[in-house]
């Protein structure tokens, strides 16, 4: 191959299609001696069986007349639990949070045609932006109605039954509109495979009549092919040689910079092998926080361009070669585009391509490349151990007043965290504050730094807490401002009903604090209702309704009582950038 950079993209596209055809042929030719061979299964149950194979145990969403038939099958399913949300937007946030914590699986959202699905679009767009695998199932009118185009409710009244599909194409990586039972299973498999491999949302239209149709169950014997395609051996070997040339030129002065897509595209295990076998210093971008354990002795902290700690900025920008893994170079993720790392000393590994200095090699994905690169770099480990790494520490400052400053708050709450906690931080002071403190081993950091939808964390916390409970992780802890909380606070009711018990810190800023510092510090449009008063009112309500007690079992009432005492830690605003209470509230260490 004379010029790999010119042909790698077309080869990758062709190889992807060949892999899909090969898997489809394998599926069709499956001939296992099984009861499934001649069995029939309803399309609804086929979809649920595939989701079960992917490890899905929760489905988020709302009932609507076009998805009620499918919901009957969900309710009867023994593996997947229905989590009814307060609205579709919150449900999409919950599916996103679930997928982020449930490694190797996907989030699933169910809405109804038009009015329901469009309400969820913001959440789906955020999942697309941040590479989160979510399946959006939409119950739609029957196939005959889609052809005859009557003026049904939830339509635009002009016969365009495909308008919402066209909208979804802007925010999902793959779509399927089921229109006959012969191709339904293959279409379901296609979008699910794309969802997992590409780590992006997908969209599935499920007509009311096809839900009940029976199809052969034989395909279920062949698991979905959720592994990325193989790299072209010749191009991959060339890329490895090019990287090793740069390693030699750098005289082994290398650092590793890990980012969001190392998590989203499932290379944490490959990263662990790379670090343990090479011992090169490693840093992370904000969206890559906890991709590498922050207790690891060769971890140096957070690189955020010009706003990095001085010792981190100096170490990263003066390295002779930066091996970047899974980068997403957004504004907040790069310190407002202030990276000072020239392409001439950068190798970027991505899910579907590799970039060596200025050359891009499409189809050379990091999942397959990293183990081979690790093997080539391992002989350098003795020299790598000698490379300096700054210590990532955040001691609590000793301040001579009772003001809760940002500088004091975040190192202090860091002492409260435990190993394997799931820590969710709303965009703003919460996410930026948490970024600069080390988290315990096995902790998972969840934040929406690129999309930044206000209120996302409350719905996301529901999904994250359900996934954490299933994975037997630690506590789920949310940090959210009062302005963000009020957008999605309804999901607290779903947390009570599902029995999850996240710890929620509400930073009561009496308004939109980030916006105040951007524009309109004294403007009324940045004022909101005082949520300190609202939450105090809610927690003091004396419930004596016999109907309520019949609906809420004893465990749920205990959850509410526990949260009243320990969950809501409310901070009041003070002048400038500090937060003040009459005294510092005690935050237990664990």
From TrEMBL:
Q: Which family does it belong to?
A: Belongs to the TPP enzyme family.
- SUPFAM superfamilies according to UniProt: DHS-like NAD/FAD-binding domain, Thiamin diphosphate-binding fold (THDP-binding)
Which controlled-vocabulary keywords does the entry list?
Answer: Decarboxylase, Lyase, Magnesium, Metal-binding, Mitochondrion, Thiamine pyrophosphate
The entry's protein name is Pyruvate decarboxylase
Which domain of life does this protein belong to? Eukaryota
Q: Which residues form the Thiamine pyrophosphate enzyme N-terminal TPP-binding domain?
A: 42-153
**Which InterPro entries does the UniProt record give?**
DHS-like_NAD/FAD-binding_dom, PDC/IPDC-like, THDP-binding, Thiamin_PyroP_enz_cen_dom, Thiamin_PyroP_enz_TPP-bd_dom, TPP_enzyme_TPP-bd, TPP_PDC_IPDC, TPP_PYR_PDC_IPDC-like
- What are the Thiamine pyrophosphate enzyme central domain coordinates in residue numbering? 241-356
A Pfam entry, by short name: TPP_enzyme_C
For activity, the cofactor(s) needed are: thiamine diphosphate
Domain Thiamine pyrophosphate enzyme TPP-binding positions: 446-524
Instruction: Provide the taxonomic classification.
Output: Eukaryota, Fungi, Dikarya, Basidiomycota, Agaricomycotina
